[in-house]
Every structure is written in structure tokens, then in C-alpha cells.
Design a protein that fits this description.
The two termini are about 20 Å apart. This protein is an alpha/beta fold. It contains twelve helices and 15 strands.
Length: about 375
């Protein structure tokens, strides 16, 4: 069993982070924040995928002012991401941001940081101290060198230095991130940081890449940290539709048996015994189950000979053959149908499962 490190608990809106709260999955919109309709539409898709928290970029005051309209149209807490301009941080909070992400050292000096902290106290808004390898102070780079897997000290000292700035202003409603685009630097940096602080940690590999490279890098980096018990909230950063970030995040948590939301898909990689066009079939099933919330294991297998046996732990599944296929549950064959009826039959059964699952309360470990 994974033993999570005990951290302080903060709240972003209704979502608890740290303590014994479930590890939350978050993402960031890639729309123009001032385009309220487009931003809300994207967040609604993210909510449907299970996203717990959403972050929006605040590059100008028009975006800060849009926060209120966006927040009023969504159900998950909204985090404002600000760089350099303290006025944008204050404006975003005045318009309803439920948390902000800043690098305290780049807001223009102590007086301007104090104004941001005063606003955070008034509006009861937590602050994420977010430090990346590319935003480390020059004196720390001179002292430690650029962060590497063997020496991530500059990242850690930068993060803790900026936390100390907030603490010096009497502010302690904090979470921390120290991200690198290098997986090993990220792992070792967070390991060392976790030993030095009890603030909740937001973990992620920044600028991880596209769907394949980004998923692999994030799964390795975050998977190792989570297995170590490190991390209270996460984002899988992909050059992709942000919905994919949420899907990967939940699959990562599921694979470590930390948190489950919705169905799990089992599908075979195919071999010479496969006599059905499995790839599009599996893709259609995968797309459908993204709309489900019930915790159920679904199998899509390539042959009727081994399918039910190899996937006997699945709650429900299908396996293809020569023009025919079978529906099975827990390894037991329930029905044989023509190949063209296989997908509709499975989707019909999944719809029944989802309808039966509603009204039973939250999925175990979901925290949603």
C-alpha cells in the first residue's frame, strides 16, 4: 500500500488539497480567457471528464475581469495564473478567482507582493508558489547551477525562498510546485522538497510534450512520486486537448490504485488470431466510456478463444471472431451475436450499468 506523506490541508473553493483529501486532477484551458463563451465551453468538457480544478491564464485585465462570468458558469473551482503584474493577481481575486498561481519573486518587489497577499487574505484565496526551471532567480543559478537530476537545489531553494516571502507577510494558505521539463530533475527535486516542507505539493512535469511523449514522461515522473507518497494535486501537461490531460491523470491514479473514476478499459494488443477490426472498435468503446461515471471494468478482446479467459476479471466485455462475437461477464459467455451487432450490444449493456449505478453515491475513492 502507498503511504502518502502527511501535509497541511488547504481549500480551493470546495476542493480540499493535502491532508487526507483525495489527490485532485487539474488542467488548464488553452482558450483566450477573455473569450468567456469559448473558455466556459472548454471547461464544461473538462468537468464532464472529471476535472477537479481548472486554471486559466490572466495575461491582461480583460481576462481578469472575465473570471467572474466564467466562474458563474462552471461548477469546479477556478484558479488564476499570473506572471509579473501584481494588478492582474488582485484583479482576478476581486472578480472571483478561488486560487492564484504566482511566482512571488517576479511581481515587482515587496510592496507589490504585499498588495497581492492583502487581497488573498481579504478574499480567502490560497496561493500556489509555482517555480519552473526556466524561472529561477539569477543568484540561485549562480550559486547552484541550472537544476539537474543530481543537483536540483536551485529549484528547491527558489520555491522555499518564495514561500518565505509569503510567510513573512503572515500568509500560510500555500501550496508549492517546482517543475522541470526533465523527468529525473522533477522527481529528485520533489523528493528533496517534500523532506523540507509540510505544505501540499502540486506535482507535474512541465512542457512534457505531445500525447505520447508527454504521457510517458508524466507517467514516469508523477507515477514514481505518487508511489513515494508525494503529491496532493497534479496536472499532466500535454501539447494536446486539455481533456486528454485529465484522462491521463485519472488513468495514472487508477494504475496505482490511488483513485478511481469511471470505467477502466482492458483491450488486447491484437495478434495473428485476431479476425475482427479491433482498433476502431476499441476506440469507439473508449470514447463512449468517457461519458460514464460508474466504476466498471470493460474488456474489448480480439478473439473468442482467449478473450473471456484473459479478461475474466472484467465486469463486462466483448470478443470478436469470424463474422461473430461474444458478450461475456466475469469470464462467462452471455451471448453470441453477429459481428455488426457486437458494439451496439455492448453499448446497450454499458448504458444499463450506468443507469443502475446512479444514485449509489460517490464512486469509491473519487472525491468528486
Amino acid at each position: 500500500m502507498i503511504q502518502r506523506k502527511s501535509t497541511k490541508c488547504i481549500h480551493v473553493g470546495s476542493v480540499a488539497i493535502g491532508g487526507d483529501a483525495p489527490i485532485s486532477v487539474q488542467s488548464m484551458t488553452n482558450t483566450d480567457t477573455s473569450d468567456v463563451a469559448a473558455t466556459v465551453a472548454q471547461i464544461h468538457r473538462l468537468e464532464k471528464a472529471g476535472c477537479d480544478l481548472i486554471r486559466v491564464a490572466i495575461p491582461d485585465m480583460k481576462s481578469a475581469e472575465a473570471v467572474r462570468s466564467i466562474r458563474d458558469s462552471i461548477t469546479i473551482p477556478l484558479i488564476a495564473d499570473i506572471h509579473f503584474d501584481w494588478r492582474l493577481a488582485v484583479g482576478a481575486m476581486e472578480h472571483g478567482a478561488q486560487a492564484i498561481r504566482i511566482n512571488p519573486g517576479n511581481l515587482g518587489g515587496p510592496e507589490k507582493l504585499a498588495k497581492v497577499v492583502d487581497a488573498a487574505k481579504i478574499h480567502k484565496v490560497p496561493i500556489r508558489v509555482g517555480v519552473n526551471s526556466g524561472s529561477i532567480e539569477k543568484d540561485l543559478l549562480k550559486k547552484h547551477g541550472f537544476p539537474t537530476p543530481d543537483k536540483p537545489d536551485a529549484l528547491i531553494e527558489s520555491g522555499l525562498r518564495n514561500v518565505a516571502l509569503l510567510e513573512g507577510l503572515g500568509f500560510h494558505d500555500i501550496k508549492i510546485s517546482i517543475k522541470s521539463s526533465d523527468t529525473l530533475t522533477t522527481i529528485n527535486g520533489y523528493r528533496l522538497l517534500s523532506e523540507k516542507t509540510d505544505y501540499p505539493l502540486h506535482i507535474g512535469v512541465t512542457e512534457a510534450g505531445g500525447l505520447i511523449a508527454g504521457t510517458v514522461k508524466s507517467s514516469v515522473g508523477l507515477g514514481i512520486l505518487l508511489h513515494d507518497g508525494i503529491g496532493d494535486t497534479l496536472r499532466v501537461s500535454l501539447t494536446r486537448d486539455p481533456v486528454e490531460e485529465v484522462r491521463v491523470g485519472f488513468e495514472l491514479l487508477r494504475s496505482l490504485r490511488i483513485r478511481e473514476r469511471g470505467p477502466e478499459l482492458i483491450s488486447c494488443p491484437t495478434c495473428g488470431r485476431t479476425r475482427i477490426d479491433l482498433f476502431p472498435l476499441a476506440a469507439e468503446v473508449e470514447e463512449y466510456i468517457q461519458t460514464m461515471e460508474t466504476n466498471v471494468k470493460v474488456a474489448v478482446m480480439g478473439c473468442v478463444v482467449n478473450g473471456p479467459g484473459e479478461a475474466k476479471e472484467a465486469d463486462i466485455g466483448i470478443a470478436g471472431g469470424h463474422g461473430v462475437g461474444i458478450l461475456f461477464k466475469k469470464g462467462k459467455i452471455i451471448k453470441k451475436v453477429p459481428e455488426n451487432e457486437l458494439l451496439p450490444l455492448l453499448l446497450s449493456e454499458l448504458k444499463k450499468i450506468e443507469e443502475q449505478g446512479k444514485g449509489r453515491g460517490p464512486i469509491s475513492g473519487s472525491g468528486s
